[in-house]
Design brief:
Blueprint (H helix, E strand, L loop, with lengths): L17 H4 L1 H29 L5 H16 L6 H11 L4 H78 L1
């Protein structure tokens, strides 16, 4: 009678550590983890962008209010402001020049706000695509894992049958 050195299988598939045992399974799991990391990164970026969506709102309101004051004569530029602007900026009539400057500043801030909103829309689309990729990579890994689990179950059944046959041989 010859004795063969055959690995005794663990009681459960999870103790068999199939992810380490099979390169294709290990690769599929690593690929899935990369997809999860990418999705998490995009989700964090989107969350951050959403937190800063109103970044320029206060500045726009303040400049808009100043613009209206200059345009509609609420307080307009008093002598000190006109004197300051004339001396340091070369502007002779604040009531005419400042509203144009304020309108330009408001336009720039609104464009920045629109670009930020566009970034949020783009990020939402990227998160959606990354989620689909992440889900597919999990499904691929899971299908491969189930295949390996079925192989384990066959090996385990064969091992039990061999043990039973060996026990009945010893009894006889």
């Amino acid at each position: 009678m010859t004795s063969t050195n055959i690995e005794k299988l663990p009681e459960s598939y999870w103790h068999w550590k199939a992810d380490d045992r099979f390169p294709d399974l290990k690769k599929a799991l690593a690929h899935h983890h990369e997809n999860v990391d990418k999705w998490n990164e995009l989700q964090r970026e989107l969350d951050t962008a959403l937190c800063h969506i109103d970044e320029h709102c206060h500045a726009i309101r303040i400049l808009d209010s100043l613009h209206d004051d200059f345009c509609y004569g609420s307080v307009a530029a008093d002598k000190k402001i006109n004197k300051f602007l004339k001396k340091y900026c070369g502007i002779y009539s604040a009531d005419e020049a400042i509203p144009c400057e304020l309108a330009d500043s408001i336009r720039v801030l609104k464009e920045a706000q629109q670009a930020h909103c566009k970034k949020i829309v783009d990020l939402k689309e990227q998160v959606k695509v990354a989620d689909e990729v992440r889900t597919k990579s999990w499904d691929d890994y899971h299908a491969l894992d189930k295949k390996r689990e079925a192989e384990f179950d066959k090996l385990k059944a064969a091992e039990k049958a061999a043990e039973k046959a060996a026990e009945s041989e010893e009894v006889a």
